[in-house]
Amino acid sequence: MNRTIRVLLADDEPVILRGLKKLIAWERLGLDIVGEACDGIELKAMIDSCHPDLIISDISMPGYSGIDIIREIHHSGRPIKVVFISAYQEFSYAQQAVQYGALDYLVKPVNTGQLEQVVIRAVTVIRQESEEERNKEMLKSYERKNLSVTVEEQLEQLTDGNKAAAATLARMGSTAITRYASVCVIETDEYSGQPSRWEERERKLVEFALLNIIKETVDSRGNGYVFRKGERFGVLLQHEHLNEPQQLMEDLHHKINSFLKLQVSVGIGRPASGIEEAADSYQSALKALRFRYFAGLNRVIPYPEESLEAAVPVSALAAIQGSLPEALKSLDKERLTALTGELLETVRLLSGDSRNQAVSYVYNAVIQLEQDMADFGADAGLLNQGEKPLLEKLADAPTFGALQQEFEAVLSKMSEQLICRISSKEMPQLAQVKTYVEEHYAENITLESIAAMVYMNPYYFSSFFKKHTGQNFKNYVTEVRMGHAQRLLLQSDLMVYEIADRVGYNNARHFSDMFKKQFGKLPQEYKQSVRS
Q1: What is the dihedral of CA 271, 277, 281, 282, to 10 degrees?
Q2: Which three-class secondary structure state does DSSP give residue 39?
Q3: pLDDT for 166-217, tens place per residue?
Q4: Where are the alpha helices (H) located in 261-332, listed in sequence order?
Q5: 185 has which bridge partners?
Q6: What is the DSSP letter of 163?
């Protein structure tokens, strides 16, 4: 459906304006009179406010002449058609009007037939030019789209290693001459191995929004080209300064997080000396992106300056694994935490940027630990009934940090199992020790002899006894002996040296010192204070 054509009338004689409005059926011809000007100044102002398609104006008016007006329209490039009406028949006016693009020139008095014929011609020209303009815009749109598709195809080929694509892009006028060229890759963290929370329609909407914000950010900077590589978006940047890709990607990452509330990881490739070497930059960008497993999700990750694999021998990992069982058996929490940290840091260094390698090292460490602890009843849960097998849980961890948590959960589970097993076995042993001390306190009791009695080494027995009683073994024996000494002192007439001998002390002076330390007074002083 054709739109209504907007008409502006101008004449310094009001009677002429009224006559023009009534002379033809404007609406029937598809025109709408949007304004009337009484002089050149008013006409100029109304052109800006009324946005006419057609002006029918007297050529000679106060303020600005019709020639002044059409000259300005001509220089501004506005697609406004002008028809002049004048009582003057001088050729110079008509010549100037035609020079600046006047559609026609009518001499007063104007009759209905003349005006209607000119208006119909103007409508035809305006509609024809509008259609041509629309077609041009559509053609340009198609050309831009096709060029965009072609550029994207060439960029894909270029990053795949086809150096000839660089020359093709240059011929298309799609590249510039700069000191460096870098490729960056962008991927949502949804694609990093985790089950997607999006339906297909939602995914397409997210990808559309993500592509738009990437293009807007890159286009605003200039000399940047966006393309698609599978689930990832690629950006080829041509730049003069080494830090430009980092700054642009940080800005883009912030916008994606802020506006789309979307987590993405960005890998920045190593700068190349020209776009012919874009494939090398692309590979280093992929390597940086893979390192998000170790660096953490939702980050901008620059290309690694050096090889990610540190010079750490595998034997270092084996040495740490060999120390873990003893720390676990002794329930030495501090030692266990330190060894766990050392083991995982060694795994990280040995793995380079390989997620699979990290999972393999950790899983093998768990298998070895379970074998070493088999005789102690500690189960790592390699096959969890009702849950995923441990290997699957380790492989599903989205980051190395999550893998670390899974490994620490295994150690925690094994520690709990050991505590339960030790507790069920040790409580009777503790009771046995206490009974023995109660019955043999007058004898020579040593930590070594009691440890041997319950089949423990002295170090472990000392730790075991303190863990369950809150005091060391020597103090406990002293406490039992002093308790019996107090009873004998108050309930018998035995001499101090006799009491000392009966509670296991062959030196009365030493006994008195220990008694005072326990009760605050020497034996005789204590006896007198209680009886007084």
Answers
A1: 150
A2: coil
A3: 888 887 777 778 899 999 999 998 754 444 555 777 888 888 899 999 999 9
A4: 278-290, 292-295, 314-329
A5: 234, 267
A6: T
